[in-house]
């Protein structure tokens, strides 16, 4: 099997009559890719930035508006994630909390070990919750509140965190107890709720420092929007994987990447 590396430059390549069945593209830049006369049965595209990145034409139809609208239909309250005033943000967070509460209850009712199963090498349910702890620590505690050492040890970093030269040792190694994960996650959810309870229009306009790219200024509002986007996108992943686990039957206690 040919496995192109991150340094392989395939820009401008012409692939004609190539069999790509089962190929997997991870963190690949496919902007401007043109496919003609292709077989796409069962193909899957997952792009969290699809709405922001522009258009996606399928048989001449821009499907981005449809793709963005369907999760709003499935998860009432998701459409509030771009709210721009205090009351709207409070309503957005309340809707998100209700959605996650239902999904947490669903996971709790599934067979033991479900929360630690990784589907297709993706994060497990527990790892997803841990990553959302880190997201809150990054965009609320660090960017908005200015906490110098914002990260809880049970947070789960992404690859970009380490790629930016950050120290991964601030996070606990191994697999922590799920009850501990739930406790920290609940604390972070309450932290956002408490912050939104008192936020004002003036607060939302305050300029903040982007924690990953200091050269690009943020506002309190844009930081809160990032938290909401992280929450809804990772909820989508979590539900997708719980569906896959249910469809596959009883999971093993754990599954490695």
Automatic annotation (TrEMBL):
Annotated ranges, domain DinB-like: 95-237
Name of the protein in question: DinB family protein
Organism this protein belongs to: Cellulomonas wangleii
Pfam family, one: Pentapeptide
Top-level division of the source organism's lineage: Bacteria
């Amino acid at each position: 099997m040919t496995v192109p590396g991150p340094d392989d430059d395939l820009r401008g390549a012409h692939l004609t009559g190539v069999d790509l069945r089962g190929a997997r593209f991870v963190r690949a830049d496919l902007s401007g890719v043109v496919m003609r006369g292709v077989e796409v049965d069962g193909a899957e595209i997952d792009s969290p930035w699809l709405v922001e990145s522009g258009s996606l034409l399928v048989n001449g139809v821009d499907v981005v508006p449809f793709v963005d609208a369907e999760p709003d239909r499935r998860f009432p309250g998701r459409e509030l994630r771009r709210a721009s005033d205090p009351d709207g943000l409070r309503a957005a967070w309340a809707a998100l909390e209700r959605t996650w509460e239902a999904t947490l209850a669903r996971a709790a009712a599934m067979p033991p070990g479900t929360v630690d199963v990784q589907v297709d090498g993706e994060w497990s349910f527990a790892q997803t919750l841990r990553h959302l702890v880190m997201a809150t620590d990054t965009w609320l505690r660090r960017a908005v509140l200015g906490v110098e050492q914002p990260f809880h040890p049970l947070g789960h970093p992404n690859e970009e965190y380490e790629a930016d030269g950050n120290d991964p040792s601030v996070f606990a190694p191994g697999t922590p107890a799920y009850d501990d994960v739930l406790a920290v996650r609940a604390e972070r959810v309450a932290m956002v709720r408490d912050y939104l309870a008192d936020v004002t229009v003036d607060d939302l306009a305050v300029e903040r420092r982007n924690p990953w790219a200091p050269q690009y200024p943020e506002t309190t509002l844009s930081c809160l929007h990032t938290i909401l986007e992280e929450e809804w996108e990772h909820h989508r992943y979590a539900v997708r994987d719980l569906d896959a686990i249910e469809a596959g039957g009883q999971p093993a206690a754990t599954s490695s990447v």
